[in-house]
Design a protein that fits this description.
Blueprint lengths: L5 E5 L5 H12 L3 H6 L3 H21 L3 E6 L2 E11 L14 H14 L7 E9 L8 H16 L3 E5 L2 H9 L3 E2 L4 E2 L6 E7 L2
Parallel strand pairs: 4-5
Antiparallel strand pairs: 1-2, 2-3, 3-4, 5-8, 6-8, 7-8
């Protein structure tokens, strides 16, 4: 049996609840989130809150793209143009272990962002039951087309060896050494694709 064809399109405001649930399910086992929030219940609660609050802005700017299989969103990606000027994002407050780890991720990745204009593949999520069925490749291809229209290179951080292999198949190459998170955290591999 062959997998259904996967298409991509911008997400709509009416889909925010469904897309937030998709992203929560996809990131529930993601390496960095599992390290930052080791308790699965706390992790799910945190992810629901983050995605519930943040996806609306991505929809408004057209940065949230869905991979759709059989009429159902199977994946979501956020890609934002960056001017090369450092972005200012409020770091997570608090001195608890979770806040410290989330701050460490943000600080480590912020220092490695390219200082030239690029399209940043900020995140990509695929429902666990749709992995390895073309949703990730469809979203990458769509993102590369968008970058090509703007004549921009693309930057991202791969959080697992499997993700890194997927990006390599689409032409991405390592950009420097891995970002090593403290406290035995996972490594993120910065990757780059020229315009």
């Amino acid at each position: 049996m062959t997998a259904p064809p996967v298409t991509t399109r911008p997400a709509t405001i009416s889909e925010l609840h469904e897309v937030a649930a998709l992203c929560t399910a996809a990131f529930a086992d993601e390496a960095v989130m599992a390290w930052a929030l080791p308790d699965p219940v706390t992790r799910l609660t945190y992810l629901r809150g983050v995605f519930g609050a943040s996806l609306g802005a991505a929809v408004d700017t057209g940065a949230l793209i869905l991979a759709v299989a059989d009429g159902v969103p199977a994946g979501a990606s956020i890609r934002v143009p960056r001017s090369g000027i450092p972005e200012t994002t409020e770091p997570p407050a608090g001195d608890d272990p979770v806040s410290r780890r989330l701050r460490a991720v943000q600080e480590a990745t912020d220092t490695r962002h390219p200082d030239s204009p690029h399209l940043y593949l900020q995140s990509m999520a695929v429902r666990p039951e749709h992995r390895r069925r073309g949703a990730g490749s469809a979203m990458i291809t769509s993102g590369l087309a968008r970058a090509g229209e703007r004549e921009l290179p693309v930057y991202l951080e791969a959080s697992t060896p499997d993700n890194r292999k997927l990006y390599e198949r689409h032409g991405f190459r390592d950009r420097g050494e891995p970002i090593r998170l403290p406290d035995d955290g996972p490594s993120l591999q910065p990757m780059w694709l020229d315009a």
